[in-house]
Specification:
The protein has 466 residues and is mainly α. The protein is 71% helix and 6% strand. The chain is globular.
Length: 466
Amino acid sequence: MLVVWLDRWQFGITTVYHFLFVPLTIGLAFLISVMETLYVAKGDRMYRRMAQFWGKLFLINFALGVVTGIMQEFQFGMNWSNYSRFVGDVFGAPLAIESLAAFFLESAFVGAWLFGWDKLPPKLHVFSIWMVTVGVSLSAFWILTANSFMQEPVGYTMANGRAEMNNFGAIITNPQLRVEFPHVWLGAITTGAFFVAGVSAYYLLRSREIPLFAQSFRIAIYTGLISSVLVAVVGHAQGQHLIHAQPMKMAASEALWHTSPYHAPWSIFAWIDSAHHRNTIDIEIPYALSILSYNHTYGSVPGIDELQAQYVRQYGPGNYIPLVWVAYWTFRVMVYAGSLMILLALYGAFRGLRDDEWLVKRRTYLWFMPWAICLPFIANSTGWIMTEMGRQPWAVMGLLKTADGISPTVGAPLVWMTILGFGAVYAAFAVVDVFLFVKFIRKGPDPELGPDKMDAKFARPVFEPE
């Protein structure tokens, strides 16, 4: 069991670290696409400088995301060989498509966008960055296709002790994927929006490039408001899906030890006593869990103890209860961080509609926004921790336990060695990432250049006097 825990820690550390870069890549690509589209549509060179400035930060993040993603591949062969054999025939197709199609698509168009300024026609150049957005979004889709199979296996048959795909259509229309992908994608857009808003607030506080960063802030805060609200809506649908697909995860995320009454309350704060299967302190909102689960004030939610007894009958003896305090608190941290983002975006969008000069006056709000950059990263990370740890003890729900998926010949010393090795590499990446981000953020946008193709397109005719 020590090796199992070490393998899980290594996988968790590398996955969470990698996922710090993924949503920011998707979110920045989308916002840069919007900014350059405004440049092509309006001919205002401010939007070109804006897109180029955020593009530098995007490229730094994109490069480090690729490198940290490669590390993920090593783990499957090193620490999770039994798991790889079990799901390889199912995972092969979506992961191959992600590598050969989506990744090549985004990489090719990143090059075209980076080197195509003033070389490609403006419409073709903006098409390039939109294709980067499509590419990074498709990469997320195919990765989440594989992850959704772990959450809710579909489109497979068991043969020779492993899962083999027999219905590709079922894999890509997995009910879990239909709620998981929009939730992750919208969370990524929110991440990019709050990053742009936070850095823009930094410049506004210092009265640098006010027209550019005021408009950059507006684009980001309106985008962040829409996306953060939609994250909550889709997350609500995902929670309702959990009631049927993974009721134990739902019960653990609520620290619900016994099946709830007909009108189920939602817990705001609980002091969890896992040893005695109870909560010594529990502050609740009446009817709220029934509303979240069924969209009305009535409806019972299965409890942990009853589900444990059901799983013993279904799967055989064993402990099918995840770490309840982890599932409970990661879910709440995600929800609380998301709620705070909605409030911040709502305030910023509301004031921005009423007063064009408020950005240089509301310094308390602006001071808070750079710190608010952390909120989507906290929500993304805790959401994934809840998603993966709430499924335990299963690596593939109902089919393969995590303890049965590890590499049998890899002992604790080797796992410790790779944990320390990956940790050292990731620490170096973190230093490089922070250094480059700080360097380019402090430097600011490039100065105005000479005329470009868009100037000729939007130039007004000059009439000579007769």
